Amino acid sequence: MNHKIVGDNLQIVTLEISEGETVYGEAGSMVYMSPNMEMEAKSRGGILKGLGRKLAGETFFMTEFSSAGGTAIVAFAGNAPGKIQAWDLSTGTDFMAQKDAFLCADDGVDMKIAFQKRLGATFFGGEGFILQRLSGDGTAFVHACGDFIEMELGQGERLKVDTGSVVGWEATVDYDIERVKGIKTMLFGGEGLFITRLEGPGKVLLQSMTLKNLAMALAPFMPQQGQTSGKSGLVGTLIDESLS
């Protein structure tokens, strides 16, 4: 399988596969495909794994894509502005991701749910109780808001991150949360009561913008009930006043 990621903050990944190869993606994430590409919705792994995917923020059914002859292409994109990252799992190290990060993968990649091991990370870490665990032999593609920063932590090296800004991390990385020090910082620092702590060894993937923060930034500009959308600035104000 060959792949190409194009775009800036509205990225799309195109996969090129040969006859006999299969890839799969979250239902509804396919953008386009060549005429010789066949697709079929399947509950990969059976009912229990399908239910697990629902809990992890994905769809019960996954869509499989295979070539009907010759080289075929299929493209996938996320449902919000952001980046797509290819993650090579052939090294044998599993990748833990936030619960709705999975986009598509090689047939040899297994996506299943995982659970936070620490109660603190579960309730205050921003990633929730349920995570996605990607394993197997192949390449998986994850999607999240904002730009991505990939870092590799050495043995015992620590990194403190804003809560919820972690897209994923290798299974060798220890993930936990810790309380922000100082009452004044807690109340007025803008980072909340807790912050995420990552400890190596292993790679981590961070995002510059979370979907929650994006929604909060857009909320003041969204039309409210009873308001007419599409008007802004001085002209919109004058029209509103003339109608009132």
What proportion of the residues form beta strands (DSSP E)? 35-45%
Named CATH topology: Double-stranded beta-helix
Largest sheet: 6 strands, antiparallel
* Terminus-to-terminus distance: 61 Å
Average pLDDT figure: 81
Shape label: globular
Strand neighbour order, sheet with most strands: 5-6-3-10-13-8
Number of domains: 1
Instruction: Tell me the series of helices and strands, N- to C-terminal.
Output: EEEEEHEEEEEEHEEEEEEHEEHH
Task: Count up the helices.
Answer: 5
CATH superfamily descriptor: Mitochondrial biogenesis AIM24
Rg, nearest Å: 21 Å
Unreliable stretches, pLDDT < 50, 5 or more residues? 119-125, 184-190, 234-239
Q: Helix content range of the residues, please?
A: 10-25%
CATH C-level category: Alpha Beta
Summing up helix and strand content along with how strands pair, one would put the structural category as alpha+beta
Got a strand count? Answer: 19
Write a structural description.
The termini are far apart. The protein contains 5 helices and 19 strands. A 6-stranded antiparallel sheet has the order 5-6-3-10-13-8, with no helix packed on it. Mean pLDDT is 81; it is low at 119-125, 184-190 and 234-239. By secondary structure, it is of the alpha+beta class. It has helices spanning 47-55, 119-124, 183-188, 211-218, 233-243; strands at residues 2-6, 12-17, 22-26, 30-33, 37-42, 62-67, 72-77, 82-88, 95-97, 102-106, 109-115, 130-136, 139-145, 148-153, 158-161, 166-170, 174-179, 194-199, 202-207.
